[in-house]
Amino acid sequence: MTAYESTTARLAQQELGACVLIQDLLPLYVEGEVSPGSRDLIVEHVARCERCAGYLAGTQSALAQLRRDRTVHIATLARDLPNRSALAGGQRLVAAIALLTTYGGGLVGSVLIGHTASGRGNPLELIFGLGLGSLSLVALFALARSRGSVTLQRVLALLGSCGVALFGSIALVANGHGGELMIGFLLWLLGLAGVWAAVLQRPPHPVAIGDGA
Fold first, then answer.
1. In this structure, is residue 179 part of a structural domain?
2. How many domains does the chain have?
3. Do residues 60 and 31 touch, judged by C-beta distance below 8 A?
4. For a FRET experiment, which of 11, 42, 122, 188 has its CA 20 to 30 Å from that of 27?
5. Model's pTM, two decimal places?
6. Are residue 63 and residue 104 in the same domain, yes or no?
7. DSSP notation for 68-95
8. Is 109 helix (H, G, I), strand (E, B) or coil?
9. Contact indicator for 121, 112 with CB cutoff of 8 Å
10. Is residue 155 situated within a structural domain?
11. Exposed, middle or buried by CB within 10 Å (0-12, 13-18, 19+), for 191?
12. Rounded Cα–Cα distance for residues 95 and 139 (Å)
């Protein structure tokens, strides 16, 4: 190899290394995030290197397409936001109605159980009350599951709230006097508040029962 060929090969390798460096900097150059000295160096190199000029054009085209796609995506989200809000509101309303209906069925079952516990009911009422209460409890768990992962905290809150409502029904049926009626209604409301929180809340970081660590 002659001295001329050796020099030419060395210059070609240096130019190739410069191209690699320039191409690494081009995305930052397009975004305007390079220093003035680096920007001048890139402009000078691209002016005399067709390969890097083509790479720059491709980078600019790709970034422009990304910006257009992002703009379209943001516009689509903004246009669909009212529909999403209305849908979410409708879903919350349906969930609230389902919860109140199910909780009411559970109260009927607990009243039948309390009536039997007071000695004034019959076995049929007890069976019907247990069945209705169990069905309502299962429905509440299903509703809670549709709103998010069923965590141990939600299970305990739901069971405790249903137990409070059951004691309220027993207080109402077993005595029936003014003080007991007030206590019973308060326990019903307390149970409803607990069920509402346990069923309709959406845990921010749910850990489902049975999930591995």
1. yes
2. 2
3. no
4. 11
5. 0.52
6. no
7. HHHHHHHHHHHHHHHHHHHHHHHHHHHH
8. helix
9. yes
10. yes
11. buried
12. 12
Is the residue at 212 inside a domain? Answer: no
- 107/192 same-domain check: yes
Residue 56: the pLDDT is 81
Q: Which residue has the tokens 């002659």?
A: 2
Q: Measured between alpha carbons, how far is residue 34 from residues 37, 74, 139 in Å?
A: 8, 28, 61
Confidence at residue 7, expressed as pLDDT on a 0 to 100 scale: 39
Residue 129 and residue 193 in one domain: yes
Residue ranges of the chain with per-residue pLDDT less than 70: 1-17, 86-87, 174-178, 202-213
207 in a structural domain: no
What pLDDT does residue 180 have? 75
Domain termination residue (choose one: 36, 70, 104): 70
| Ramachandran area for residue 210 (φ above 0: left; ψ -120 to 50: alpha; else beta) | left
Domain around 65: 3-70
pLDDT in tens, 15-49: 556 787 887 888 888 878 888 888 888 888 888 88
